[in-house]
Design a protein that fits this description.
Radius of gyration: 24 Å
Distance between the termini: 39 Å
Number of helices: 13
């Protein structure tokens, strides 16, 4: 794209589709000059739509629609006290078999040295805790890429660069590379008591920023990596987070079943067989949000196709395919309800009340759209 095309992709709707998740203002300093944000605030006082040049927007759009691997940055746990933190250091070092790199550049394999650092972190936390509150001494994170997308050494190098940019001079941290699982990943443990007196208390906006920062470091090393919100890729169904899995495991051990799949099944059966099925407000909002996001990508495709350039037309075609491949804007409950209704039709059920409430099977979608009035519910 030439300078004459500057602004072709500076589309407010596309920038809004890529807007970082909200959930509190960023509480930590970081690469604010490297990864820029717009001036306006998003909902809830959180992130704003990214401010990108046309060239930056095009590069990001290409990575998204051509499905560049998405980075993963996850808070994996909290450690309380020197003993707990020492055990964690033992785990990430595989009890001295793996190297652990400190924020000061020290390479450590000695477990006694690791326990000494754990004691130092705990001592600093205790000294800065005049009220004796029960609070974590450190927080652990896992950073990775999908298996087979890059090599372990590159991920390790990118994480170290990421940590230097985000935490150096503010929070002590330790880095350990694991290569003994299906794909390499890096454990990053950060002291919650900052050297300047601040506390390490990341919010949702911080996590998204870290994903962007980690992806940036990988791209600097020649790896096509992205860090977009799930909604920017058309996903409505949320991931089942680790705490839910942990809660399920704990309740199973206590003889109290909390089977997430069973709960979804029960709610889907109730919706599919109800005489007066009702959509939850969040389901309606999800459908509207995905419509806006699809429209933003289509608008970008039209703008690119209008330039008359072969490379722009090719990207416009890729966008069209990306939008066509987006999943349906339905929750797990509604997706399962759709499957139940399809099964009912196959077994000879004459009709389903929920079908009239807007949960259509894929083979009936076009027919339902022909019959539906503008004000009717969708899916």
């Amino acid at each position: 794209m030439s300078d004459d095309d500057d602004g072709v992709l500076s589309l407010p709707s596309l920038m809004e589709a890529w807007r970082p998740p909200t959930g509190g203002k960023r509480s930590l300093r970081g690469a604010t000059l490297r990864i820029r944000s717009g001036g306006g605030k998003g909902r809830g006082g959180g992130g704003a739509a990214p401010s990108l040049s046309a060239a930056e927007a095009r590069a990001k759009l290409e990575r998204i629609v051509r499905k560049a691997p998405e980075v993963m940055v996850k808070i994996s746990g909290k450690q309380r006290g020197a003993g707990h933190l020492g055990e964690h250091f033992g785990y990430i070092s595989r009890h001295g078999k793996l190297e652990v790199r400190s924020s000061e550049g020290e390479i450590i394999t000695d477990e006694k040295r690791l326990k000494g650092i754990a004691a130092d972190w705990d001592m600093l936390d205790q000294a800065m805790n005049p009220y004796g509150k029960d609070r974590p001494t450190s927080m652990s994170m896992v950073l990775s890429m999908p298996g087979g997308t890059t090599d372990a050494a590159t991920i390790h190098d990118a994480v170290q660069a990421f940590a230097r940019v985000e935490f150096e001079g503010q929070f002590s941290y330790m880095v350990a590379l694991h290569t003994d699982t299906d794909h390499p990943h890096v454990h990053l443990t950060v002291a919650t008591q900052g050297q300047d007196g601040t506390r390490f208390n990341p919010r949702k906006a911080d996590l998204h920023h870290w994903r962007e920062s980690f992806a940036h470091e990988l791209r600097q090393r020649g790896i096509a990596a992205e860090a977009t919100p799930r909604r920017a890729r058309g996903h409505v169904q949320k991931r089942v987070r680790s705490p839910a899995h942990h809660l399920e495991a704990r309740t199973a051990g206590q003889g109290k079943e909390l089977d997430l799949n069973r709960l979804i099944e029960e709610r889907a059966q109730e919706f599919a067989r109800s005489q007066n099925p009702e959509r939850r407000p969040e389901d309606v909002l999800a459908l509207g949000r995905q419509k806006q996001i699809r429209g933003a990508y289509r608008q970008a495709a039209v703008a690119l196709a209008a330039t008359g350039k072969d490379e722009d037309r090719a990207l416009a075609e890729d966008i069209a395919g990306f939008v066509a491949d987006m999943p349906a804007a339905v929750s797990r409950r509604l997706q399962r309800a759709r499957e139940i209704m399809i099964a009912d039709r196959v077994t000879g059920a004459a009709s389903s009340p929920a079908r009239d409430a807007g949960v259509d099977g894929p083979q009936d979608r076009n027919a339902s759209q022909r019959k539906r009035e503008p004000g009717d519910r969708e899916r």
